[in-house]
Amino acid sequence: MLSIKPARSVQGKIDLPDSPDLFLLASIIAIASHRPVRIKIDRLTPLLELWIDILKTHADVEILDGTVVTVGKKTGECAAFIVLPFDILPYKDFIVFTLMSIGKVVALKNAGQKRVDAIIKKAKKFGFTVQSENYSGNPGLSITDVPDVLNTAIEIYDDDVAPLAGLLLGQKKSASYLVDFHYAHPVRNVASLFGFEFAIRSTVVKETDPLARRIKMMQGKKKSQVSSGQQFQLILNFENLQNAKEDILDITLPGDEVLGAILITAKCLHSKSSFVINNLPLETWGSPVITLLKKMGCKVSAQESSRTSFGSTGMFSIQKCDLYGRKVECRPSQAYIPYLPSMVVLACFAEGQSVFRDLEDLRNDEPDGIDLIEHCIRTLGARHGEMPDGIVVEGGKSFDGFDITENLAPWLSGSLAVAGLKCMGDTSIEDTSLLQRWPAFNEMLAGICEFRTDK
After folding, report:
1. CB of 313 within 8 A of CB of 214?
2. Which residues pair with 10 in a beta bridge?
3. CB 410 within 8 A of CB 434
4. For residues 104 and 82, is the Cβ–Cβ distance under 8 A?
5. CB neighbours (10 Å) of residue 124?
6. Could you tell me which of 2, 12, 32, 1 has the C-alpha nearest to residue 274?
7. pLDDT-wise least confident of 103-112, 217-226, 248-257
8. Helices 410-422 + 369-380 axis angle, to 10
9. Can you say how many angstroms the Cα of residue 196 is from the centroid of all Cα atoms in its chain?
10. What is the pLDDT of residues 188-238, one digit of tens each?
């Protein structure tokens, strides 16, 4: 169990370790594209070792000096099954649909029937047939029928993009759709390195003549907001046309986006402290918590310091601020999985009410994802309201310590740990999955926290 004492302040500087989720994502793309990669890591953790052991049955994986992992095409026979030990993980849609599309049977450990049905329904929308069979007590999902021609006339929503991209990558196909939304995903950043194209482009033709551009701008101001909806072209080209090279591709990882969100939360709850986070991903896909903080009234600053295969990283700091509750539309909901607990913890300590909507897909998890977060809110002592597609949180100023005995996902238990730092009493949290991802989590908190002393 992790024991958390009330903290007086959070201060110092943290260099985020590399993201294990993006390590897995890069490895899956390498396997699907038959392009060998060399991924630099700062240290081996139990979670990375787990992913490497799983990948070894599907690719030739080698660890060099404990800091470089190479993933290449397997010389021997590849396993037909791949067991994902967590039914809930970041970027799950892309990973599961990519693996199924290259012919793997994907066994999701402890996944419920509602999640299985949701995957089957999503694949059917694009013309793919997925069947489920029992594999060691877990559902094993595989594609049994692939459409000859994709129907590009169907309407695509933001929660369709990641699974569709995975299907097209595995099949080495391309497609283009008209959409009415922006879209951020780490695969968009790394796709070009593999020779693919994953882009969203405006359909508005730019005017080159300065006078005509000025007239067009003035006309645009007169249009009503109702008629000003913009369309974009979603381009997914995974035909590997530019990827004839066989040389190894070097992949650099940004800092752990999940830990970054948790530490940002810790800083906001102790706003008088001086605390800087380095190696934080600054791309849109990794910053929902930062976006929420801006809406809550915080003044944040970020300074880019380096570029990785998944985009820019840098130094992040927050000025002293008061938090005010806000409404958040969590679309696509899968993109909010690792960040939602931190956002909810911020809402628990904010002034007023916060609303998190568009989370219907979490109802397909086992246990129910929304119910689980609400259970954690109640355990913390905050008030919340019932919603079929989301969560309503009533902010409070002070809470007593609490105990979490369930082995929760690390983004949940980590967020609750920093909530405990703000409570008046002691907190204890089951830390099995937490330490699997961050073995030195307790020492890290001890290094940045000044704890209150008992009188």
Report:
1. no
2. 449
3. yes
4. yes
5. 12
6. 12
7. 217-226
8. 20
9. 21
10. 999 999 999 999 998 766 656 676 666 666 655 554 344 346 889 999 999
- Chain center to CA of 304: 20
Token code pair at residue 310: 């998944």
289-313 residue pLDDT tens = 999 999 998 888 889 999 999 999 9
Query: Structure tokens of 375?
Result: 């259970």
- What are the structure tokens assigned to 217, written together? 């701008």
> Which residue type does 22 have?
L
**CA atoms lying within 13 Å on the CB side of residue 352:** 10
Distance separating alpha carbons of residues 71 and 73, to the nearest angstrom:
7
Q: Which pTM was predicted?
A: 0.92
Query: What are the phi and psi torsion angles at 377 (to 5°)?
Result: -65, -45
CA angle (385 as vertex; 379, 386 as ends), nearest 5: 105
Tokens 């082995």: give the residue: 407
User: How far from 284 is each of 89, 154, 365, CA to CA, in Å?
Assistant: 19, 27, 25
